[in-house]
Amino acid sequence: MDSPATGHRRYPRLGVKLPIRWRSSAEAEFRSALSKTIFTAGMCIGTDARLEPGEQLDLRISLGDEQHSLQARAKVCWTSGEPPAMDIGLEFTETADHDREVSDLLVRGTL
To answer: 14-108 falls under which CATH superfamily?
Structure first.
């Protein structure tokens, strides 16, 4: 995944604000965030928490209601800013085939 400073993108991005629920491996409770961009291999979220590159997160990405959501495991690749306004670049490390297909359709604008 590329950092925001490089300007070079391997995958097309969709700028979209989706409600995200996330937790790190060390936490039992999910926290809230908003997506900024999503693409086939990952996403950028805005959160008030400080995360470090390499941390693993469990994600629940809402597509409008409880019935329509994606689940993924992701690795923090880069961070920018300071709490309470952190941007976090995530690379998906585990997604179900169906969820990967849905994210592809979302990014292409066909969902």
So the answer is: predicted glycosyltransferase like domains (2.40.10.220)
